[in-house]
Amino acid sequence: MVLKNNGILYALSLLLNFTFASNFSAMIKGKKVVVVMPAYNASKTLEKTYNEIDFDIVDDVILVDDHSPDDTSEVARRIGINHVIRHEKNKGYGGNQKTLYNKALEIGADIVIMVHPDYQYTPLLIPSIAHIIGNDLYPAVLASRILGKGALKGGMPMYKYVANRFLTLSQNLLMNQKLSEYHSGYRAFSREVLEGINYNINSDDFVFDNQMLAQIFYAGFEIGEVTCPTKYFEEASSINFKRSSVYGLGVLWTSWLYFVNKLGLVKSKIFHQR
Questions:
Q1: What's the pLDDT score for residue 237?
Q2: What is the pLDDT of residue 159?
Q3: Which helix (H) or strand (E) holds 221?
Q4: Residue 96 lies in a domain
Q5: How many CA atoms lie within 13 A of 144 on its CB side?
Q6: Residue 135 maps to which CATH number?
Q7: Is 117 within a domain?
């Protein structure tokens, strides 16, 4: 009888430990960590990216397929991503992110980490990024390709590297900041940051990224950085020279708007409309 009771108690103990681990082990100080993936034609690289996610840290994953002509959505469901959303029409990179962040807030995310499913950035940095936000060191984090030699070593085209340095210098001067770069797609935000800015009013195109960072600084939040290796290869998403030029002009315009809004000369909706 004693042995039987001990066996029952042992089984209950294992069950309780499993339940506790399932509910709490992936959280950082009780904060829910959600990885969001903006996807377009990512079927070839998605699984490799997903397999590097540390689910001892990450509680959930959301993927938004921006009307890809390939089978990105099917691959996402097959590998077990819980939240797969497919746009009925292509909404653009910024439009994709809006859907991702809105969904992340809807499911109760406290820390939201954006990882591109094209495997250009490694998800192995997720634990470090999540702990920075989870321990209240910074409310937002960028994984920088420029800190160290990650960009050129990983194959970034020289014209993009030079443009990155010029734009970053201009942005730092106009916004009185000191980031190593503003153009990495590997980034993370606390719930407080996402709820403290109106990112839904921003562009649906690539300049969304920089509008969002400008809004974060304008709202008084700080942004931390970690160094990040990167890879440039055929399947990695990229934009052509023409679209890069349009993006660059949009970045400079956003930084100029930040500058004149801080001086009180104008009131732009992206900074003043909640």
A1: 56
A2: 83
A3: none
A4: yes
A5: 19
A6: 3.90.550.10
A7: yes
Show the CA angle centred on residue 195, arms to residues 24 and 88, nearest 5°.
90
Give pTM, 2 decimals. 0.87
Q: Hey, what are 207's tokens?
A: 């300049």
pLDDT of residue 24: 40
Contact 87, 95 (CB under 8 A): yes
Report the pLDDT value the prediction gives residue 92, as an integer from 0 to 100: 96
Q: Is-contact 156 230, C-beta < 8 A?
A: yes
Question: If we measure between CA atoms, which residue out of 135, 117, 106 comes closest to residue 34?
Answer: 106
- How far apart (Å, rounded) are the C-alpha atoms in residues 144 and 15? 42
Task: Name the domain count of the chain.
Answer: 1
Which of these, 236, 136, 223, lies nearest to 188 by C-alpha position? 223
Q: Which residue numbers in the chain have pLDDT < 50? A: 1-6, 8-25
pLDDT at position 235, please? 56
Domain annotation covers residue 255: yes
Determine the structural domain holding residue 231 and report its residue range: 25-272
Residues 6+ apart with CB under 8 A from 78: none
Question: Does residue 262 lie in a domain region?
Answer: yes
